[in-house]
Winged helix DNA-binding domain-containing protein (Streptomyces viridiviolaceus), 394 residues
Amino acid sequence: MGDGRRHIGTGERRARLALRQRLAGAARAGSPEEVAGSLVALHGTDPATVYLAVGARLADAARTVGETERALYEDRTLVRMHGMRHTVFVFPTELTAVVHASTGLVVAARERAALLKHMAAAGAPDAAWLKEVEESTLAALTRRGQATAAELARDEPRLKLQFVYAAGKSYEGSHTVSTRLLRVLGVEGKVVRGRPLGSWTSSRFRWAPAPEHRELDPAGAQAELLRRWLAACGPATEADLKWWTGWPVTQVRRALAAIGAQEVSVEEGTGYVVAGDAGPVAEPAEPWAAMLPGLDPTAMSRQHRDWYLAPELRPALFDGSGNIGPTVWWNGRVIGGWAQRADGEIVWRVLDGEGVGREAEAAIAAEAERLASWVGTARVTPRFRTPLERELSA
């Protein structure tokens, strides 16, 4: 480049993705903790996504369910909590304080203010009353270790109080204090999701006390989160970083400056990597295929995606709200999608056959078999369904 910035082209970006996102065969991880550490965050809105994202990246996929449950519910080395964009993710527990300070504090203040406003409008008790209920609820949760909202309401009956939300409006509804309060406590970093009531695909979770963490300076926490993410996912544009974090652009720029991020050139314009990471990265030694779940962190990691996902594939692979469904990858680009049928069969379809031959088809078939072998008798239906997934699963 004439301005002295190194250009990182599509081929090298795909190589970085393959190696740092643990997708190439030789780069696969030995544990869920390694996977989460490499990706920074596993999208947790759909519980099955966490397991499917881990399984796609483990060297020994047969250990996916047992090892992920161990990390989440026994060793607590991974934690499910609210994070960027007010979305639930699974993070390494060591990042709890960083995520809370960098993204949770502002959302938490907004959520608590909204709850108090809605309760006041409905004639429900005031903030002092809510504080009493909160303290009693947290004490009950500490005694139990993990509990459902219904179990906590037996210990603290005031959680059962109902109030009308948005009375007289088209979206009027009735809420219980337990539903809203536990959500607020979640974004405040006081409680987290615990073990589900059902299998690993279940969306019904118990609550658990959040891991203890020290309070960090928000600006310092933002710098640390951005540094980790760029190390795993860079290069990225300013727009990518704003989209992933959910922060205002002024905060993104402040964090970039704080870590001394290095400018590079990418197809979309100016990109950023962590200092010293602009050098060449070789492609994986062997071609690779992957079957990633809906909302997988690699597919959902940025705003600009054309370098790994052709725009013409989006109508089939995304739902109406911009959530990506299950995808088939070949050497760093999305070429199709997959689904599981009612009988458990994993089926897939290539939508972009450019340069895809017998080697790719054999590798994808092997990944489908690998996926089916550890999913076993479980049936996985994505929470956000897409046109191709619906068609394939029918």
Notes: The mean pLDDT is 93. The longest strand covers residues 333-340.
